[in-house]
Amino acid sequence: MFIQNINFVETNLLWNCNRVNYQLNKKIQFRLGYAWIETFPFGEIPIKGMGKDFPEHRLFQMETISDKVSIVDFLHRFMLEQR
After folding, report:
1. What total number of domains does the chain contain?
2. Which domain holds residue 17?
3. Coil vs helix vs strand at 11
């Protein structure tokens, strides 16, 4: 199990993401996380330009399953987000 804290800035977003990963076995991994996203003004009619803040708090869970069939690798990702 390991914990990550990720911060980065995109063109119009500021992200802060904390997550915990748990590797059940070599094929199955679980992730639980929280993200805070701040949106900056952009476009012709920006939401924040109208006096409205648009912060987003998000919880998420993810399961990743990897598998190999012959020479083909498969990666299945199931994600659930609460916004």
Report:
1. 1
2. 2-82
3. coil
